[in-house]
Structure formats: C-alpha cells, structure tokens
C-alpha cells in the first residue's frame, strides 16, 4: 500500500515522519537494550495503540505503555525485539506491521536503553491481550497523541539531580514517564 492510499491525516504523518531527521540521542547511561513498538492503526482517523500493564507485574504495574520489552539474545535488532514483544503482548503478527522507522533510544529509569519503533498496523487486525502482561488495550486518536500541548512537565529532584517527566491524560488513562516521553518525542519529530 503506497502512502498515497492512506487517509490524508495518516499520509501527512508518514511524510512528516520520513522527512524529519530523528532528534539526536542524548548520551545514554544505560546499556541493557530494549525496544517498544509504537503501533499506529490505519483507520480513517488513525489511532495509537496503547496498553495498560497488568496490576500483577513486578515492575510498572498498571502503567500505560507500548508493547515492548528487553532484547533477547536471539533478537537481531530493535525492530525484531519490538515485533516479538507486540506479538507476545497483544497478538500483533509481525508480518502485519509496516515499519516506518525508529526514534533515537531513550533511557528508562530501570536501566534500559529503549528504542521506539514506529509501525503501521492494518485496521482489521484483532488484538488479544496476554492477560499475564496486559490488563487493557486501548486506542488514542493520533492527532490527539501528537498534540504537544497535552504533555505537562514535572521536575523530580532525586539524589542531587533533576529529572523531567511528562504527564498526560486520555479519557481515564494516565500516560506518563517513558511512554509520554516517547509520544512527545514523536510529536516533536513530526511537527513542522
């Protein structure tokens, strides 16, 4: 499918994403690799697929996140990690994802260097949450997600350092931390 055959708002997003160079990666202090898939559903009004992590998880329980996780030794690239994790968490088949590209890696507060991978998903894909990892799957309109004004900064002072977090809400979902930072970075990249 050429990007001229996508709805105008999605074709515009694709053009902007592909024409802009990613922001330069900040110096990474983390070495453990991980990746997430930023799944964009190709609806007439495109949406961003997000999950709310299961409350029973040891880390980040109940938080809004993208499908993703740490890189396995068999993963040949961040794209392979993101696709594997999306299949495991929400049953998105790897062959159904059209990869647009990657954003520069971000450091997580749990010691991972996380590479966001942007992919397009057909509207007819059925999502099935892996109940061990995902409590809920929901969609957010892409135009809302990419509105920079929806992300509020919060500076946290810890161990003599200031860390900036971003916070946002969508309906009853609280989007913050690394997920909000990734969406905000994507919004910055496509804003002209």
UniProtKB/TrEMBL annotation:
- According to the lineage, what is the superkingdom? Bacteria
Q: Which residues form the Nudix hydrolase domain?
A: 31-162
**Does Isomerase appear among the keywords?**
no
**Residues at which Mg(2+) binds:** 85, 89
- Entry annotated with the keyword Repressor: no
Cofactor field: Mn(2+); Mg(2+)
Enzyme Commission number: 3.6.1.-
Q: Describe the family membership recorded for this protein in Swiss-Prot or TrEMBL.
A: Belongs to the Nudix hydrolase family. PCD1 subfamily.
Query: What is this protein's name?
Result: Uncharacterized Nudix hydrolase NudL
Gene assigned in the entry: nudL
């Amino acid at each position: 499918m050429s990007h001229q055959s996508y709805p105008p708002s999605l074709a515009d997003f694709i053009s902007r994403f592909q024409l802009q160079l990613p922001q330069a990666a900040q110096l990474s202090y983390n070495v453990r690799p991980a990746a997430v898939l930023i799944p964009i559903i190709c609806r007439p009004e495109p949406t961003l697929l997000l999950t709310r992590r299961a409350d029973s998880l040891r880390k980040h329980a109940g938080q809004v996140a993208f499908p993703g996780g740490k890189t396995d030794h068999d993963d040949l690239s961040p794209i392979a990690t993101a696709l594997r994790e999306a299949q495991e968490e929400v049953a998105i088949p790897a062959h159904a994802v059209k990869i647009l590209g990657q954003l520069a890696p971000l450091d997580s507060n749990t010691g991972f260097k996380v590479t966001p991978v942007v992919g397009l998903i057909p509207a007819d894909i059925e999502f099935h949450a892996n109940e061990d990892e995902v409590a809920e799957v929901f969609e957010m309109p892409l135009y809302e997600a990419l509105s920079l004004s929806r992300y509020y900064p919060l500076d946290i002072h810890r161990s003599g350092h200031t860390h900036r977090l971003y916070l946002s809400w969508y309906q009853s979902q609280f989007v913050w931390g690394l997920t909000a930072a990734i969406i905000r970075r994507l919004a910055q990249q496509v804003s002209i």
